[in-house]
Write a structure and sequence with these properties.
By secondary structure, the protein is mainly alpha-helical. It is 55% helix and 4% strand. It is built from six helices and two strands, in the order αβαααβαα. The chain is globular and about 35 Å long. The termini are close together.
């Protein structure tokens, strides 16, 4: 796994999207429901985020990378638990933590 691939994997793993994808939902969420895509391409336009969502989901599925998309209220509840230390997020040190077989085979 090269550094660029690991960078993209970390971007997907380090954030979460709210459910959405329609123009109305996007407006109501002020386009924050494309946080994963924003981490991948920070300079893309809002329309490009919307257009790229399905491709990002498919790429994640093809490489067994979790693409997390949750209800906004569930996410706010989880964030409040994280901020108050009632829930701890798992620490992912490297891509090997997700794909140990791939990194061992490459060595």
């Amino acid at each position: 796994v090269n550094d660029k691939a690991e960078y993209y994997v970390r971007q997907v793993l380090s954030t979460v999207n709210y459910n959405g994808g329609t123009d109305l939902t996007d407006i109501l969420h002020v386009w924050t429901n494309y946080h994963i895509e924003h981490h991948l391409w920070a300079r893309a336009t809002l329309l490009q985020f919307q257009e790229s969502r399905q491709a990002v989901k498919q790429a994640c599925a093809a490489h067994n990378i979790p693409y997390i998309q949750q209800n906004v209220f569930k996410r706010y509840w989880m964030m409040s638990k994280i901020f108050t230390n009632l829930h701890r997020q798992p620490v992912i040190k490297a891509v090997q933590d997700i794909h140990p077989a791939q990194t061992n085979a490459a060595q």
